[in-house]
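A quick aside before the break. I want you to see a complete sequence-to-structure record at least once, exactly as it would be stored in a machine-readable document. Don't worry about memorizing anything.
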Amino acid sequence: MLNCWYMIVVAFSVYHVSNAGKLTRQCKALNGKCGINTNSSCDEMFGPGWVEIGKCCNARPCCNIFRCEDIQQIPNGAVTKTGTTIGSTATFSCDTGYVLHGTPTITCAGGGWNEHLPICHGCPDIITHFSGSTYIISCNTIDRWSNAEAYCVDHGGHLASIETEKENNYLKHVAKLLRGSAWIGLSDITTEGSFQWTSGQQLTFTDWYQGPPNQPDGKTENLSPNADCVLLHQSYSWQWTDDSCVNAHTRAICEI
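That is the input. The structure line, written in C-alpha cells, reads:
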C-alpha cells in the first residue's frame, strides 16, 4: 500500500514539474520574464512599461516591455522614431509638394499610439494604409458618385467598403483631416432600400446618421427624395447619409 502511495506522489510531482516547465517555456517564447510573485503587477516588479502577457509557473505573471506597432513609413512622407516602447515618439514630415494633415508627433501609450497616423495631402492622389488595406483619396472633389466609382476602378479598386467600426472610425478620421465629405461604395440604386457595396462584399456594418437599419430617403434635411448614394457627410460628423448621387465638394475614398 505504501509503495502505491509513493508512486502516486512521484507521478504527481513529475507532472507538476513538467507542467511548470511548459508554462515557463511559453513565457520565454514570448520573450517574457516571470514575475517574482502573484500579488504584484509587472511594472511594480520590473519598472514602468512592463505589462503582463501571460502566466508562468505557480500562476506568476509573465511580463514583457509593451511595444507599439512599428511604423516603417507613411506614403509621400517620412517618420522619425525614438523607439516603440511606452513614452517613445514618432514624428512625421511630408515630401516636397505635400502638406501634413493630422498630429505631427504621436506618443506610444499603454494601449498603442495615442493618435492615428497623419496623412500627406497632395496631388494627384492621397495614399494611406490601415489594417492591411490601401486607400486612395482623390485630390480633387468628384461631384458624381458614378464618376467617383469609375475613378476608383481606374486605380484598381472600388469605392471603399466599410466592414468594421474600427475601419469606419479611421476613414472618418481621414475625411475629417481633409475637411470635406467623402463618397463610399454603398448605394441602393439597383433596388430601393437594398444597399449594396460596389465591391460585392456583404453589408455587415452600418453607421447611418439616423440610426439602423437604413436611413430613409429624404429624411435628412435638404436631401433629394432620390437619395441613393452614400457618403461620409461632413455636416453630420462624417456619419453615413444616403444623398443624391450628385453632390459637390465630395472626394472619393477608394479601397485598393
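Two observations worth writing down. Residues 2-29 form the longest helix (28 residues). The CA atoms of residues 53 and 154 lie 45 Å apart. We'll return to this after the break.
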